[in-house]
Automatic annotation (TrEMBL):
CDD domains: SAF_NeuB_like (cd11615). Its EC number is 2.5.1.97. The keyword Transmembrane does not apply. Gene3D superfamilies: Aldolase class I, Antifreeze-like/N-acetylneuraminic acid synthase C-terminal domain. Residues 294-350 form the AFP-like domain. Transmembrane segments: none annotated. Pfam families: NeuB (PF03102), SAF (PF08666). The keyword Transferase applies. One of its GO terms (molecular function) is N-acylneuraminate-9-phosphate synthase activity. The lineage of its organism: Bacteria, Pseudomonadati, Pseudomonadota, Betaproteobacteria, Rhodocyclales. This is Pseudaminic acid synthase.
Amino acid sequence: MKNISVGDFSIGLKSRPFIIAEMSGNHNQSLDRAYRIIDAAISAGAHAIKLQTASPDGLTLNIDSPDFQILDKESLWYGKNLYQLYEIAITPWDWHAPIFEYCQKKGIIVFSSPFELKAVDFLEELDAPLYKIASFELVDTQLLRRVAKTGKPVILSTGMATLSEIETAVNTVRDQGNDQIVLLKCTSTYPAKPSDTNLLTIPHLRDAFKTIVGLSDHTMGVGASCAAVAMGATVIEKHFTLARADGGVDSAFSLEPHELKILVEETERAWQALGAVEYGGSKNERNSLKFRRSIYVSRDMVAGEVLTENNIRVIRPGFGLAPKYYEIVLGRRVNQDLKKGTAFSWNYIG
């Protein structure tokens, strides 16, 4: 799999994790707050800001029948119908241009999740560098084709999708000649339980579809994201807010600035720690040999003297002959004078 280039960032196994701060509706309908969220994400070290480009009318109907109501009492949005939720959750379209301009001025990548066909055309006018398809839209093949035709990288959030549905989505994008695909493991509950996250799916996704993989993480904290990197995730998306106490549609499962900073630092550490399959210690471990044991001369010896328990010992450091040879060398004669504290070697027998 080739790396995917977005701006100055290269996404792939050989690059540090690409960290996306999802603003979603955490701007709370304030453009000034949106700018402050961007600044906080930059200070925390995020690599990209993601918006959502949608309209209530493009998503649903303003109807109060049970099909359109949020009836789950445990939901963050209980009591609203879908239209009412999207009215407060969307980022106004006339904010997009100033937000894109602000991010470009500040040097952070900005892109969006389109939720309808005209949103893709709108984002193309803003020269969005990549696209994200939300998990609930993964089955919208019309939207997938339109995004794929841009020729830009496409991040697909898998959410509730079956293996067959993911295959259809990937093939839909590839059929348009676009193979710049990232698949995100995602759990479509808000917040998500770690026990429902199933990170072992990440390497399976990569192997099944030969794509770059990542995690859209709705769990609390950063543990799942760090573990995902260890499983091969190279993209991490997290909802982000200035303070959960400020409220907002996604605030309850969003990271605060100090937590996003930890996420950036710890996922990069996890990536650096992956390394390669290696045994025997690295170059940087060489100095630690002094804490291993080996065979040393424990008193002055003269040439021809027999090796006994009285003149050699297994002690620290570990620069001499390995302890497993201790019984083998006992009773042999040394071929030269040896000082106490000499690291023993086969060269001294003969």
